[in-house]
User: Fold this.
Amino acid sequence: MAKRPVRYVSSRRRKRSGLRPSSEHWLLLLGAVVAFAVVIGWLTDVPWPTETTTGNRKARLTMAQARASNALVPIATAKRRAATPFRFRGGPAARLQATECLATVALYEAGNGRDAQRAVIQVVLNRVGAAGFPKTVCGVVYQGANRTTGCQFSFSCDGSRTRRPEHDGWEQARRAARRALSGYVYAPVGRATHYHTDWMVPYWRSSLVKVATVESHIFYQRR
Assistant:
């Protein structure tokens, strides 16, 4: 019986049949580094050092830490610009609609606080006259409301409108809205176009000028 010839596999083909030893070492090293980073992150659990909401990631500042951070930012009273009386241009139906929009944002954003409601209303009217915002009251109030994120006033996209509160604050807010549409100016916030509560630190804080505080709200105007 004839013997089958012995087939020899070259060293080059043997190397191609599997991972090279150096590649295996690199994969093991990479896995060890990733595991080490995960463990360190889990053990330290260090909060983000700045904003409570920064795009898609959320910082872990406590309310006390956020308030302390906000308190370190001085109020630039000298830079606060005076707002001018708002002139509403529209018929009775449009005025009624604008009144309801202003009252709604004032109540949801400021609760029953009279001064805070007036301050929020002033911010809305300031935005109507500022570049980069809608040119109607209701347009400003509900800007971005059709998105789950990115709305200008959180109540308009977080489901709050489905839980419409019924209490005395509504009539107070409507009175404040009617006065503002008739030319009343809430002077303490000047031409502020942004605000937030003192227990949070928004990512945009450093890009604006802090001009006032009203109750638990902090107000800013553009530089």
